[in-house]
Structure formats: structure tokens, C-alpha cells
# Entry
Amino acid sequence: MSKILVTGGAGYIGSITTAELIAAGHRVVVFDNLYQGHREAVHPDAAFVQGDLARPDDIRALFAQHPDIDGIMHFASYTLVGESMQQPLKYLRDNLVNAANLLEVAIPAGVRRFILSSTANLFDKPERIPIEPDEHIIPGSPYGESKFFIERLLHWHKEIYGLRYVCLRYFNACGDTPTIGEDHSPETHLIPIVLQVALGQRERLTIFGDDYPTPDGTCVRDYIHVVDIAQAHIRAINLLADPLTKIQSHYNLGNGRGFSILEVIDSARRITHHPIPTEIGPRRAGDPALLIASSEAANQDLGWTPHFTDLDAIMRSAWEWHHTHPKGYLQ
Ligand SMILES: NC(=O)c1ccc[n+]([C@@H]2O[C@H](COP(=O)([O-])OP(=O)(O)OC[C@H]3O[C@@H](n4cnc5c(N)ncnc54)[C@H](O)[C@@H]3O)[C@@H](O)[C@H]2O)c1
# Structure
């Protein structure tokens, strides 16, 4: 049975992926400094090592304790696009150096499989919608650029050390499971913010611009359920177990269709029975009208299709977590 290291496995996507890995029969070690993560989010059957990728000694201690790690899913990262526009080196330097620190210990330890949780923020000016994996890479922020740096790091570790890797690029992770969910501080994602209005924690939701060239004038985005994301990571790492598997180095993951901000709000109104008051604010700089990823290649090569294609089903799963955990993990 393989042992997978999940960096950032106490965070939103990493903790749910850990639970899915365990359900699929893998052994898991979670490594997280709890900068954003929550110890309570880590599945009880996973080993937990608290440590920081910025500290090579922590990584060496992790591998000394778990010398049989044979694959890595790398989620640990600074993740905020907006913050990266204010503190670029926190992203361009730290996200890159942390990944390099990890590889520097993992390669001599014999790790040969690596999945990077990358981002569709690599495609700031797509020429085609839906966005194909071979779209021109124009990162939209230092955050997106830092993921591209790591993708290049992996490319050279493949060329030089034979590391097998896949980068999964996606937009808006969303939805929850009944027991593990999204608890970020600050919260920047639309669905949890809408649900904070339904919980009475915010008065109203500001919609940034309603005059975009989309059917209802609000931005359209690709929302992909966190369990679907987890399943794509698991499929990719399983396929990498066979060195002869023909697999690309990067895939886009998407829901198959986009949803507008108004569609998201309407869904939240249906599921929560709350009126969710809104106000229209000015457009935000750099927000494209329409962003949707094409998952065709992931479908063909990984055999992956999203199960949560219905917005109400996504919203229901998010509401189930948020209304039973109104303060997140701080109950
Ligand atoms: N949430 C999304 O919509 C989305 C979309 C595309 C890609 N991603 C990527 O998926 C990954 C997970 O995103 P998330 O929303 O779960 O974020 P998150 O902040 O909830 O999880 C990241 C985890 O990494 C940990 N961490 C951060 N720096 C660390 C370090 N130096 N050492 C050890 N642990 C560290 C944090 O404590 C946290 O638990 C990120 O790499 C993000 O870039 C997320």
C-alpha cells in the first residue's frame, strides 16, 4: 500500500483529499504548519506532522520519520491572488523556495510521483473559452506566476531525476463534505461569503460589476467541487505509479460549464431560504467576464469527470457544512 505525503493536508482541499485518499485505501502523512489549516480537519487515520516547508530541517525530520513516502500531493502554499499583488515576494519567492525545499529532500528519499495543485490563474488572457491545457500561459498575478515557477521546477526534476509529475490547474474550488469544510481567514471565496450572509454574519453581498458581456451582466466562473478535485488528484497519482503510463504533465479541471455570480446567489437563496440582499459595486481591476476550463484531456487521460455539475448540489453540500459549523472549526 502506497504512502502519500499531503502537504497542506490540514487546509481546505488538502484535508478533504486526505479523507478521500484514506477511503481509497492509501496511507497518508499530512505535513502542515497550520498557518491556515486546522488540526481538527485532518482525518484521524492520517499521520500528522506539524512543520514548515520554509524550514528544511522540518522536512528532513518528516522524511526521517516516514522514509517510505512514495508520492506527494503538494497543496501547501500561499493562495491569495489579491495579497500576492501587495506582497509579491511572499509568493514569487516563498512559494517557489518552499517547493524547492521539499524536492531537495524528497528526491534523494526516493519519491518519484508528484501532483501539484496548480491554478487556472495561469491563464489571464485566454484566447479560447473553454480554456484548453495548451492555452498560452500568462499568469494573472504573482500567485499564478509562483505556481508556474513550481511547474518549471517539476519539469527539470523530471528531466534530471526522472520524477513523474502532473500539475492540475483549476479555478474556484467549492462545496464541502458534512464533516470537513472550508474555513479560511480571511475568506475570499464567493460561496462561503454568500453563505455568511445567509448565516447573518454579513449584511449583504457586494457584486463587483453587473455590466459584463455575459447573459446576466455578472462574471461567469468555473466552480468545481472539492471532492471532484480530490478525485482528480487521486486518479493522477495512481496512474503515475506505472512508469509506462502515458500521461501529460498538466491538465485543466473544470465543471463543464460556468455559473454567473447571480446564478450562485439564486442557488444560495433556494438552498438556504434566505433573501441574501445584494448591492452592486464597481468592477474589480483585472476581473475577466468569463473563465471556464476545458476538462476534456483530463477526462480522456485520467478517466476523470466531475460528479457535482449541478450548482444546487454544490451549494447544498456547502450549506450543510456551513450551517452546522457557523464558526468553522472554532465550535
Ligand atoms: N481554493 C481554491 O479555489 C483553489 C483553486 C486553485 C488552486 N488552489 C490551490 O490548492 C491548494 C490548496 O488550496 P486551499 O484553498 O485548500 O488552501 P488552504 O490555505 O486552505 O490550504 C493550504 C494549507 O497549506 C498550509 N501551508 C501553507 N504554507 C505552508 C508551509 N510553508 N509549510 C507547511 N504548510 C503550509 C496551510 O496551513 C494550509 O493548511 C493551494 O496550493 C492553492 O493554490 C486552490
Remarks:
- The longest helix spans residues 142-161.
